[in-house]
């Protein structure tokens, strides 16, 4: 959606009646394709088709807007353009070409492991675009002076100011999320913000008050005096942008999937506000679809972590991996290492094996190897299932997409609520790169930062095999007692290589 926001924004005036009917009809078609495409994203088998349908729908909306713009200046009584700015078609074409040139290559080349970063970046671009639209409307109307004396303030004024605040927060917040996920943010800086989270909470309240105060001032100026200095809108964008930075900087890595979803919802709502300002139906509907679906997803993910959205935004935990060594775990016990041969024997003679994928599987690109391993086990009469935690990985549905890419049957992927009752009846659970979502401290230790977060009940299995590179903690930055449990053994190394070694041992049995 973000790549088409600026084009949709061009339709701020009413075309002739005949063209209006055509544009409305095309918009209705586009809205239907948005909704139908979104419904296809509920499962891996229909997700690609749904994505294409929604993309074509956005193309229809863009064409409708261009038709409207082309016929925009012929509705005056004297046959001349009425209050419509000159349309620079060369600039519009250049924007389309640049957008395509910048958007397609990363979408094609980005690996699934880096998809969360790409989503965060593209989402940020959408919010930034909306903020620029608000700024351009301020300039085009001479500081909203065109609406001097109107009561109440024009929807353009109110919508633009809301879009400026939310869009700027979303843009800068998404850039921070991208830098955290890409691990280019200096660890010292990240720890500083996490350690001083309460200080930045106070700063955010002050920045929010400042942003709202400036917006109110500009709204009053539009109705009473008009013609506010451009520095006011710049100050608004800066205050909201700094707030976006300060909101996301202190949030721990364990909460990043929820943050991405929340920022996505904010971008949609800012686009809807811009649509209200520009009287563009397509922008309103598209923005509300993104905002509503993103809000629902954010709430579902927060519920899956047994945390409220304010608790995630205003209270953080987790600052990235903290290295650890193989060996004694203090009060936890002692880690037991295993070999590929022992792991293969355990699984080959099991009745049921559950695979728990995590971000380590994504990093190693081990999904195809895991599928091959499962196929060999199934040929030996072993039932294989996949346990998917709602916040496993770095974005919603990350593990589902990875496994679907390896042609794992959708019916084999079990959500947390559906699979948790199976672990007590499971002979072997193999955890591949997952950490926090399998941590029994969330269930047993009231002092743990993740206490109360629903987890996969891996520790209830008869035997657990954990594939990890080292004893480093997960993204929440806390130790996992599962690794020291009596029934747990650790297979250290790159996940793809370890699974490959297990496959060779299985073939030899």
Structural description of this entry:
It is a single chain. This protein has 509 residues and is an alpha/beta fold. It folds into three domains: 1-75 and 85-106, no CATH class; 113-318, no CATH class; 330-508, 3-Layer(aba) Sandwich (Rossmann fold). Helix content is 58%, strand content 6%. It has 19 helices and six strands. Strands 3-2-1-4-5-6 form a six-stranded parallel beta sheet. Helix 16 (398-405) links the parallel strand 2 and strand 3 (413-415). The chain is globular. The chain starts with a helix and ends with a helix. Its EC number is 7.1.1.1. Keywords: Cell inner membrane, Cell membrane, Membrane, NAD, NADP, Translocase, Transmembrane, Transmembrane helix. It comes from Williamsia maris. The chain crosses the membrane at residues 20-38, 50-70, 82-104, 116-136, 156-178, 199-219, 231-251, 258-277, 283-302. It catalyses: NAD(+) + NADPH + H(+)(in) = NADH + NADP(+) + H(+)(out).
Concise account of the structure shown:
The chain is of the alpha/beta class. The protein folds into 3 domains: 97 residues, no CATH class; 206 residues, no CATH class; 179 residues, Rossmann fold, CATH 3.40.50.
Unreliable residue stretches? 73-84, 317-330
Report the principal-axis shape: globular
Number of strands: 6
Q: Major beta sheet, specifics?
A: 6 strands, parallel
Q: How many domains comprise the coordinates?
A: 3
Secondary-structure element string: HHHHHHHHHHHHHEHHEHEHEHEEH
What does the average pLDDT come to?
A: 82
Structural class: alpha/beta
Number of helices: 19
User: Could you estimate the helical fraction of the residues in percent?
Assistant: 55-70%
Strands ordered across the widest β-sheet: 3-2-1-4-5-6
Rg computed from alpha carbons, rounded to a whole number of angstroms: 26 Å
N-C termini distance: 52 Å
Residue fraction in strands: 5-15%
Function: The transhydrogenation between NADH and NADP is coupled to respiration and ATP hydrolysis and functions as a proton pump across the membrane.
EC number: 7.1.1.1
Transmembrane segments: 20-38, 50-70, 82-104, 116-136, 156-178, 199-219, 231-251, 258-277, 283-302
Subcellular location: Cell inner membrane
